[in-house]
Amino acid sequence: MRILVVGNGAREDALSWRLAQSPSCDAIFAAPGNAGTATRGENWPINATDGKALVARAVAEKIDLVVLGPETAIAAGVGDRLREAKISTFGPGRAVGRLESSKIYSKRFMERHGIPTAKARVVHSLATAVKTLAEWRGECVVKADGLAAGKGVVVTPDAQSALSVLREWYGGAGVPGGGSDVLLEERLEGREISIFAIGDGKRFVPIGSACDYKRAGDGDTGPNTGGMGAYSPPAGFPDDLVDVVRTRVLEKVVSGLALDREKYIGVLYCGLMLTATGPYVIEFNVRFGDPETQVLMPRVRGDFARLLKTAADGAIDEDAARFDGGACVGVVLATADYPRSSTPLRDLSADVALSGDRVAFWGASALRDGVVDAGGGRVLTVSALGDDVAAARANAYAAVDELAHRIGNGVRLSYRSDIAKLAP
Hints:
424 residues; D-amino Acid Aminotransferase, Chain A, domain 1; 28% helix; globular
């Protein structure tokens, strides 16, 4: 197969890396790609949301499978354009992609189809927010409706704090992601976990799980980020959790989509809170997560390309690929000013190769004359395998120490030191 991966982050680097190792993969391409994807295939200078240009190039290059990486491509309807051109595509269309691109659509879908989720209210202005919050009791999660690059969710301790956030949004800063619609949600108590399932238009097959770390600093301090690290599989959860999620969430998503006359082909990221009464859905994402993908892909064995291709064609071959029994830990190396800003970096060492069961994935970047220019923010994700989480963690941080001194050009990258540091 000739395979195109759409996107330019560490998630797409990890997907490209694993797909290129699949027995059924003959050639790998990326659009626009990054410094990592450039080492194993050809990068196309096409924006991930430019469906027209992607279709034209994919047809010309005789692409057999397109894998959509970022949520922006899905929200832009790239999957719809590709399917209209009869190109096999792994990633949902724009309509069903609203499970991620609209928090309000997603909440209404879950309420309509009996999927366990937090209670919530919708507000459209500061005036309606004032009225709603006057009756609010307890903590409040404020969620911008649209895509906001990880900056549209704020957890507040009480109604007054939530109102302060909304005064800032409505008073000039603007609602993250645009528009004026905001979801106010009760805060659930428990442990967070992400479970990933592949849909072929008829059913969902769970394939893996992970836990990620969104705060910038150790001990979950500092501002929210796109993710500072992750590990897989999660530790300390019930053995039957995936089966419970299958019946409590995934089967209801399938039946709900059928009732709504929608078809879902791609990966469904279920962001869950495991409460005292079972798992509740915090959010759905309609693509592989970042940095979760960087700890899922090193655990894959078999023909991952065939797994995605058969799903894209409507009849998933569950036996094409599997996850091994070990663990993987990923640590994100970011610029010191992240997430407040993202200073671009130039002339970084392109040599991020690691020995054994360790691998580094580039974030947004470009390979130029043997060096790398990075866009700033999350520069690299360093992932490592181990027999268990503790061994994988030690392996990952040993690799971080090695790369942090090798990256070159006097650059000091920051990272959390407590990724996958589990309670004894």
